[in-house]
Write a structure and sequence with these properties.
The chain is an alpha+beta fold and about 150 residues long. Helix content is about 40%, strand content about 20%. It has 4 helices and 5 strands; from the N terminus they run ββαβββααα. A hairpin with a 2-residue loop joins strand 4 and strand 5. The longest helix is centred in the last third of the chain and has 17 residues. The relative contact order is 0.11.
């Protein structure tokens, strides 16, 4: 409803639960006014703003790092700096098939959420490091990575 009331609208507007990403092409001043307007719509809901503000810059959204380069977007896996690194431990009592499925699916997510070969490589290394941190043997990490391709 509030989006219909504003004169300038984002080129792209997507929401997932309480996370919103939008592509704004009207300049920083009107973006700040847009956010200020949204912050007047409900006394207990306040929006925060993270913007690239540059020609080639990045913003995080959910588990993606989205980079804007001119008119092109690229994306790769993003892990928050506050992430503890704790996933399912390989030493857990879960069946081996579950452990392997989790590892494979984490690599599949890394590949799926990356728009370039370099991004896929970088994202897969992040997943490999997280699995190793959770006591996955190198042989299981390598096998999961190859099964995910």
């Amino acid at each position: 409803v509030a989006l219909a009331a504003v004169p300038m609208k984002p080129l792209v507007y997507r929401r997932y639960i309480d996370d919103i990403i939008l592509l704004w092409t009207h300049g920083l001043a009107s973006l700040l006014a847009f956010v200020a307007f949204f912050n007047t719509q409900h006394p207990q809901i306040k929006f925060t703003l993270e913007h690239s503000g540059q020609e080639a810059a990045s913003v995080s959204y959910l588990d993606l790092l989205i980079t804007v380069q001119g008119t092109a977007l690229s994306y790769e896996l993003y892990v928050k700096p506050t992430h503890s690194g704790v996933h399912m431990s390989y030493r857990s009592s879960l069946p081996l098939s579950c452990k392997r499925a989790v590892a494979r699916n984490q690599f599949a997510r890394a590949y799926r959420n990356s728009s370039s070969t370099d991004g896929r490589t970088k994202s897969a290394e992040i997943i490999a490091d997280l699995l190793r941190l959770n006591d996955f043997p190198e042989s299981e990490v390598v096998a999961a990575r190859s099964r995910a391709i």
